[in-house]
Amino acid sequence: MTKARLAFPPRPRGGASVAFALSLLLLSAPAFAGPGVTPTEVVVGTHVDLSGPLAPMGTAVRNGLEMGVDDANAKGQMWGRKITLVVADNGYDPARALAAERNELSPDRIFAIMGPVGTPPVAAAMPAFVNAGALHLFPFAPADETYVPHQPLEFALDLPLAAQMRDGLDALLAGRDRRVGVLYRDDTFGRRVLTAVERELQRRGARPPVVESFRPGAVTMTRQLAALRADGAEIVVIGGIAQDAIAAMKSARRYAPQFLCPQSCYVPQVPTLGGRNVSGLYAVATTPIPYPDDPDPALRSWVRRYENRFHTVASAEAFRAYLDTRLFAEVLKRAGPALTRARFARTLEAMAPWRDPVYGGVPIDFTGRDHLGFHAGFLAQVKAGRWITIASTQSKH
What we know:
Helix content is 39%, strand content 18%. The longest helix is centred in the first third of the chain and has 21 residues, at 55-75. Helix 3 (94-102) packs parallel to helix 4 (119-131). The radius of gyration is 23 Å and the shape is globular. Strands 8-7-9-10-11-14-15 form a 7-stranded mixed sheet, with helices on both faces. Strands 1, 2, 3, 4, 5 and 6 form a 6-stranded mixed sheet that branches. It has a two-stranded antiparallel sheet with strand order 12-13. Mean pLDDT is 90; it is low at 1-32. The chain is an alpha/beta fold. 48% of the residues are buried. It has 2 domains: 37-158 and 294-366, 3-Layer(aba) Sandwich (Rossmann fold), CATH 3.40.50; 161-285 and 379-393, Response regulator (Rossmann fold, 3-Layer(aba) Sandwich), CATH 3.40.50.2300.
């Protein structure tokens, strides 16, 4: 959309008329209020892991955001404004996320935080952003506190771990009494997976899980898996990230339970790096991995552009970050020229369930009472060296 040319009213007479004319000019020009917004710019920040254990995911999210910002700016239609993206490396470390909030991502410099990565750093830094009045949008962290208790400027997309475990165990248990084990990473994220499984089994009236833990960075889990096998675990939930799933299944040897992982393991590197060891692994996800031979020509074209630009394999996280940016730009367009954080939030709440007009996907639906955008996902499994969608999950959480 080209920027509208201002039409000046006739020259007024008298002080009251002058004031009235000035007010008309102010109403017709692109207005702004608050940090990170000018008539020509909206500043968006993010903190992702570029140097720690989630670096592949953090890099993919950064790439997807950058590509989405560039495409949105090239298209325009945001009332003369362009998006500026500021990226900080949190190293999957809460202290580094807090330091970024005090420096390059200070709420008095940015309009919104969008797509931060990692449950521990997001949980640590989010309150400061929200309390300072900054929008906190679409974190890559399946934590309840990203959307409850209800906060006017806080919007989440990741299915919470409780919902992921409910959907995954629904599929694998299928009404049968099967022993469930949990092999979890001894950190905030891993313990939340454990809690989600415990509560889900309790809700079902099932036996509590048998449990083993491992330290972050562990490359072998033979002892823990032997203990789970001895306790009769037929399903093993891996409470960790992609590297953990690969290490666990390589360590399993002749022990072959059904392995289930949260969305954190749903990345193309798992079947690529894990090979035959990870065949059969299940995960719950919301955004499909964009493979270069996908049947959808629009998605194939996006994969080619992404891989040509960044010289790396496209992932679901990169694609979701890109789609998140398209949603952000659409809200800017609908919010109008008088942009504020509150107006952006109200516009997002008022939108009908949103599916990307080019790429489709699971509908995103926010309301004034519900700031969790995804309420359904799908179950995927590693087969023949890639992730395959097994079934959709339709329950409302």
